[in-house]
Amino acid sequence: MGTKGSAAGTRESTGGAALPVGRLGTGRAMLAAMATVVVFSGVVQGCLTPLLPELGDRLGISGVGQNNLYLLSQCAFAVLTPLLSRLGDLYGHRRLLRVALTMAAAGSLLMAVRPTVATLAVGMVLQGAVVGFFPLLAGILRSRAPERGRTGMSLLVGALLIAIGVGGLVAGALSERHAAAGLWAAVPVAVLALVAGLLLPDSDTARGGRFHFGAAALLTVGLVALVLVLAQGAAWGWASARSVGTGALAVVVLAVWVTVERRTAHPLVSVRMLSDRRLAAVSAHTFCAAFGAIGFLGANALFLGADPERTGYGMGLGPQSIATVSLAMVVAGFAGSTATPSLARRIGDRAELATGGALIALGFLGMVLAHATLPQYLASALVVGLATGLFESITRTLSAEIVPERQTALAVGLNELALSLGAAIGAAVIGGLFAAHQRSAGVIALSGYMWSWGVCAAVALVGSALALAYRGGAPAAPRTAPPVTVEKGLA
Using CA atoms, how far apart are residues 179 and 18, in angstroms rounded to an integer? Predict the structure, then answer.
């Protein structure tokens, strides 16, 4: 794996130092290996959602228990995003990628081999390590193939979106006879991803500093409290003592964390990074775009599955039909992602950011105005899907380019955190709107959806306006590929 005398037998020299490039070099084979890693992430994220209701019934997990499993997963996402990103910048992106792959693969195997309440909980926490894949891959990509940065990132985002849709379909098909069978969908992909992780080259970014354990503990407590109140606030009551207390704990602990980070010589997350107006604008835009585009995904399935005869709205679709619509949306997202580099060259990064937010708003306004038939609703949903690929690709790309190379994984990690928090807050707000617009027997009134679509459109427009604050400047200049010398050795 990139050692002298390997079968590849290739080494790069950078500044006089010889560095292994790995068996895959820096070309299409490297991007293919990265895509394999990202596909594993997509399958993990896509396969459990259609399985959990039936699996919960089989294992005796109540609706509250299923929600708590999702909550546990959200907490793992929030905590592991900055930790894996920072550790990657400190100790090597490939090393931490392999750690994250091992964690996610172990979680997938544990859940498939012995599905119980306990193993599902542990497995979902371990699978949370997939949030580190993009930041760590971005660090390798920027270091080893900067000239492929934009096209590479757009292809990886597209592969992720397709894998989420296909993963749900495959898991649903496997579980038709036995609910737990769908859990095996991620296992063979995990094996392929582990092999790909072994073949990838490491980044040659300069490393240094120490890991601040105190800051890590504060950030963990603060993020867990924040995600907890966002996910459970509607159930607890936003004005209840539990919600107010948990929210206050999150604010106080995160404020202390910021103070500690500003004073330490080795911050876990450089808070000063957000003083860069470009990174702040990109992160804020990501939050607003994810609010509706990702936060509404669960509600989208509810609307598609609602029985028109009972509720007066909806499409009355079954699980497989809903999964097919979701797949159509991610195919549109793939198209948006792969179009990102060429669109940026034509209209510029700032205009592309603003366009992504405007398209999300257009899609949700379309739902407000035309939702009576499936073709009408699907047309608007596909616009949202297209915009999802667009914003996920351009924001990850710009986050990687804005900062010095040694902070690449951390900057992309901050963008992932903004995306996760935006989606969580969006889902919480939509849940609150649904709770406020219920009819008898717990049926959500159509007005709940109308308000939700309107709010998602408004927040997306705010994100589009924030994108106008982005002042691009030139991204970090791509390095010319260093000279390559070939050393022949024993295979």
Answer: 52
